[in-house]
């Protein structure tokens, strides 16, 4: 099942060295119908600490920029801190959690004003000063609140299970989903492939995904050139067809020292993976 162009998106944070408007021009020029906007504190084009000072004005500016290029807002991906712990949803300090909730509320407002209906975030981490079970339960409690808040405003909320999170393996993710009614996934196989987890073990998560990040990966490396890739994207697309997946597929190469993600040619690899997804049978 090839990907229809109307369901193909690309992340603006794939091209962090470009001015934002030029990155949007490039994404539109690649033939993508939509864009994922990174809302990352301390890095990236649009940072919540700046954008949320004047939420309505900032969101209206982004909406105009997208409309001028014929791009939909596929997802607003909120990472509120410079590391996984800062403003994590399951932070042990209740004052920090309250602050994180306020930022989440304003992020949902921003997404709606910018024309979006989907917000992604991170699930939280295992805190060293407590049991993993306590960290997990606090994640579930906070994510229930976020799902409910987003739903009341007509927004779908998802979390991206990732290396270093409270849910690093598919079985952990399924446990969190069971504890958090209505939660969906922004699914990136690479975080599991990097650990040597086979596609077949990740596959049940597709049924819970509302958004999908596509990039090449292999055991030991989160992001690699396509010729090193071991993720079976054709099989993924077949499962998506069978399970009725309706979200976007986002080309999501990143440029970061983290996990050596600064060692790929993001433009070339984005084009190569785009062509694979568009021609898959």
What's the order of the H and E elements?
EHEHHEHEHEHEHHEHEH
**Fraction of residues in helix:** 25-40%
| Spatial separation of the terminal alpha carbons | 5 Å
Q: Which topology does CATH recognise?
A: TIM Barrel
CATH superfamily (homologous) name: Divalent-metal-dependent TIM barrel enzymes
The total of helices stands at: 10
Which range does the strand content fall in?
A: 5-15%
Averaged pLDDT: 96
Major beta sheet summary: 8 strands, parallel, barrel
Residue ranges: pLDDT <50 for 5 or more in a row? none
Strand order in the largest sheet: 1-2-3-4-5-6-7-8
Going by helix content, strand content and strand pairing, the class is: alpha/beta
Q: Provide the CATH top-level class.
A: Alpha Beta
Rounded to an integer, what's the Rg over CA atoms? 18 Å
Tell how many strands the DSSP assignment holds. 8
Give keywords.
single chain; 281 residues; alpha/beta; TIM Barrel; eight-stranded parallel beta barrel; 8 strands; 40% helix; 14% strand
General description of the model:
- It contains ten helices and eight strands.
- It has 281 residues and is an alpha/beta fold.
- It has a single domain (5-279), classed as Divalent-metal-dependent TIM barrel enzymes (TIM Barrel), CATH 3.20.20.150.
- The protein has an eight-stranded parallel beta barrel with strand order 1-2-3-4-5-6-7-8, surrounded by five helices.
- Strand 3, helix 4 (94-113) and strand 4 (118-121) form a beta-alpha-beta unit.
- Helix 4 runs parallel beside helix 5.
- It starts with 7 loop residues before the first strand and ends with a helix.
- The model has no long low-confidence stretch (mean pLDDT 96).
């Amino acid at each position: 099942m090839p990907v229809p162009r109307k369901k193909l998106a690309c992340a603006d944070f794939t091209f962090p060295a470009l001015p934002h408007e030029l990155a949007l021009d490039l994404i539109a020029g690649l033939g993508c119908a939509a864009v994922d906007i990174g809302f990352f504190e301390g890095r990236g084009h649009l940072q919540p600490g700046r954008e949320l000072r004047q939420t309505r004005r900032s969101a209206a500016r982004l909406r105009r920029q997208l409309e001028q290029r014929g791009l939909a807002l596929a997802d607003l991906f909120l990472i509120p801190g410079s590391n996984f712990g800062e403003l994590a949803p399951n932070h042990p300090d209740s004052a920090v959690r309250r602050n994180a909730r306020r930022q989440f509320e304003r992020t949902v407002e921003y997404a709606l004003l910018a024309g979006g209906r989907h917000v992604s975030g991170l699930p939280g981490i295992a805190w060293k000063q407590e049991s993993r079970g306590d960290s997990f339960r606090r994640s579930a409690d906070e994510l229930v609140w976020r799902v409910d808040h987003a739903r009341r405003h007509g927004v779908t909320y998802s979390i991206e299970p990732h290396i270093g999170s409270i849910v690093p393996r598919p079985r952990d993710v399924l446990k969190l989903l069971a504890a958090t009614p209505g939660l969906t996934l922004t699914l990136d196989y690479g975080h599991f492939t990097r650990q040597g987890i086979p596609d077949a073990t990740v596959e049940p998560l597709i049924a819970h995904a509302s958004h999908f990040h596509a990039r090449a990966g292999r055991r030991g490396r989160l992001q690699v050139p396509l010729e090193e890739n071991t993720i079976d994207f054709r099989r993924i697309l077949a499962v998506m067809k069978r399970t009725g997946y309706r979200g976007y597929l986002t080309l999501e190469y990143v440029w970061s020292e983290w996990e050596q993600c600064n060692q790929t040619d993001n433009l070339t690899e984005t084009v190569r993976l785009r062509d694979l997804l568009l021609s898959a049978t």
